[in-house]
Specification:
The termini are far apart. The chain is 12% helix and 48% strand. It has an 8-stranded antiparallel beta barrel. It contains 1 helix and 9 strands, in the order H-E-E-E-E-E-E-E-E-E. The protein is mainly β. 11% of the residues are buried.
Amino acid sequence: MKKLLGLGLALLCLTSCSSDDEKTPTVNLDQLAKRWFYVSTKVGSQKTPYDGNLPCGKDYLEFQANNVVREGDYYDCQQDPAITTGSYTVEEDTDKLTTTIDGETIVYTITKLNSKEFQAETTFNNLKITYIFTSTP
């Protein structure tokens, strides 16, 4: 009887521990592939609204299929924005996003990503910088 009880406890421990080891994703990476409009930047606790948007158009990052990223920049209210194209990769297990645009590579950690909001942080000169985007212009 003791062996049967011991075996039952061992099986209970094994089944209850196995689900704890599975990693649940912190962000939904399926939401990344779209156009994201700049909202603000946060350095430490200081949040600064993005000042590059114009009444005629809002600057954006657009993540497309085949790991293509496009950066749209409106200036002087021209009809079409200046577009710079680059590439990106995402490490799903760590939520690391690496972009290379115009020869500059930046590694971010995605801290929030859903259908309406996208936040990614990086470190520059020992400062943690968080970029905040929205999916609606």
